[in-house]
Write a structure and sequence with these properties.
It is a single chain. This protein has ten helices and seven strands. The protein is an alpha+beta fold. Among the domains are: about 80 residues, no CATH class; about 150 residues, 2-Layer Sandwich (Heat Shock Protein 90). Strands 2-4-5-7-6 form a five-stranded mixed sheet, covered by helices on one side. The protein has a two-stranded antiparallel ribbon with strand order 1-3. It is elongated and about 125 Å long.
């Protein structure tokens, strides 16, 4: 059925393209008939000549249509390929088609050159940022040692450690953002205890929990999942960081629902406005809370969403303004 439709479509398009030649052919036959009448040629001779010319004309147009149809099918097959390669092979029938082919080839080469230049520039930038992130960790570590050795006041130490932790977290976010495009290449799937991954993420934020006097309610559970530990930890750390950032007092609770294979991280923070809730996972979206807090980048939850999708984890949020927010991670039942 599709082949017949394609054939009819090609026939219509061919007739549009060849209508001048067809009209010219008909005019030539008409002129011959008119001349034969004027010169009183034999009717049998005229009819024979008209039949021969008509037959030759039909054969010519049929051959041209077959070539037109085959070229259309060839080009459609090339267009439908997942990967199209432009080869310097001339498949045109005339000078104009050759000129168009050369023009397309030139545009392709220009685009390819521009893409190569952009890719090279992006790689140079990525290499620089990777180097910068790794280098910046050295002074952070040195400052941490100085704080522990030189400052004796406990409150001051906690404040210094909190700010150092933020610096380290932001540099880690830069590093993960650079890796996000080649995310799957970095995955290493193994069986892990989800409770241990969560516990380590909480422990990493212990300085901020202590400094802000926020209680953490971590209910123990026994669940093993197939995942990438590093990237799942990244998701949990970003969620905890957001919860701590917008929770001035109260608690943060973490629990696992075995029936739904769902991890819930809830806080008693400032909550999220209902009109912002559907957009919090969009890139660079900060919403009302972000506008009131100038340090918000809108990248944390965006990166969480990207990584979660790659790990086949559903992530969504529920929130009530001025009461708190719950982030839910639902794991694939076949991986739990």
């Amino acid at each position: 059925m599709n082949s017949m439709r394609t054939l009819i479509f090609c026939l219509k398009e061919f007739l549009k393209l060849a209508y001048r030649q067809i009209i010219f052919f008909i005019l030539c036959i008409s002129f011959y008939v008119l001349s034969a009448i004027l010169y009183r040629s034999l009717a049998s001779s005229v009819i024979y000549t008209i039949c021969v010319l008509t037959f030759l004309g039909v054969v010519y147009f049929v051959v041209e249509f077959i070539r037109f149809y085959r070229k259309h099918i060839f080009l459609q097959n090339e267009i439908n390929k997942d990967l199209i390669t432009i080869e310097e092979e001339n498949f045109s029938d005339n000078l104009i088609e050759t000129d168009y082919q050369n023009l397309v080839l030139k545009l392709y080469n220009q685009s390819k050159r521009l893409l190569d230049d952009r890719e090279r520039t992006n790689k140079e930038q990525s290499d620089y940022f990777n180097l910068w992130v790794h280098e910046i960790k050295t002074p952070i570590f040195a400052l941490d040692l100085l704080v522990q050795n030189k400052i004796k006041d406990t409150d001051t130490i906690l404040k210094f450690k909190q700010e150092l932790f933020k610096i380290e977290q932001y540099t880690e976010m830069v590093l993960q953002y650079l890796r996000i495009e080649s995310l799957t290449d970095d995955f290493k799937f193994e069986q892990y205890s989800l409770y241990k991954i969560v516990k380590n993420a909480v422990k990493k934020h212990s300085v901020i929990f202590i400094n802000k006097d926020i209680e953490v309610k971590l209910l123990k559970f026994e669940t093993t999942i197939l995942t990438d530990e590093k990237w799942l930890s990244f998701i949990l750390e970003q969620i905890l960081s957001n919860s701590l950032k917008y929770t001035k007092e109260g608690w943060i609770s973490i629990e696992f629902d075995a029936c739904l294979n769902e991890l819930r991280i809830s806080d008693t923070g400032i909550g999220i406005a209902s009109e912002d809730l559907e957009r919090i996972f969009e890139k660079s979206f900060t919403g009302y809370n972000g506008r009131s807090d100038r340090t918000s980048t809108g990248m944390g939850l965006y990166l969480c969403k990207k990584v979660a999708c790659a790990l086949n984890i559903e992530i969504y949020a529920e929130s009530v303004l001025r009461q708190g927010t719950t982030i839910k991670l639902r794991f694939d039942k076949y991986k739990v």
